[in-house]
Amino acid sequence: MLQRLWQNPLFMSAALPHKVFPPLFNCYREGDSFGYHVDNAIRQVGNGMERVRTDVSSTLFFSDPEDYDGGELVIRDTFGTQRVKFPAGDLVLYPATSLHRVEPVTRGVRLASFFWTQSLVRDDGQRTLLFEMDQALQRLTQDAPDHPSLIALTGTYHNLLRRWADV
Questions:
Q1: Which of 28, 85, 133, 160 could disulfide-pair with 110, CB 3.0 to 4.6 Å?
Q2: Is residue 111 exposed (0-12), middle (13-18) or buried (19+ Cβ within 10 Å)?
Q3: What contacts 5, CB < 8 A, 6 or more positions away?
Q4: Coil, strand, or helix at residue 75?
């Protein structure tokens, strides 16, 4: 799972991963839920000395929405309240600083994996700006690969990443 994640260009662009906490799994059955919370800032990997700062939270859905009722991931952040219930195989990323919960499952079973990423860029706002710029650069590369501004904008992206990265 993690190998495929590290090969996913959209994940790489959005999370700018430095470390990924080993995935955990959950199974919500009828009546199961998880109340509002903010994820721990630091997670210790196993019993070892390695720690991961949790900048980005992720949920990978294993159950299709028609397999269960309820069980929505509800995320409250600066953009308001988002209700997420994706098809099996889809992943949602959101700032680990976000208040979130899982609504009660009322029918069926909700299977998912969840994990955290320590990003190269700690700040949510900076990471969002870099993601938007990277996506625009990719579109520009497809639409106008010889555009002279492409080199300048790519340089600006990398200089901002260099300035903001914690390595």
A1: 28
A2: middle
A3: 11, 20, 91
A4: strand
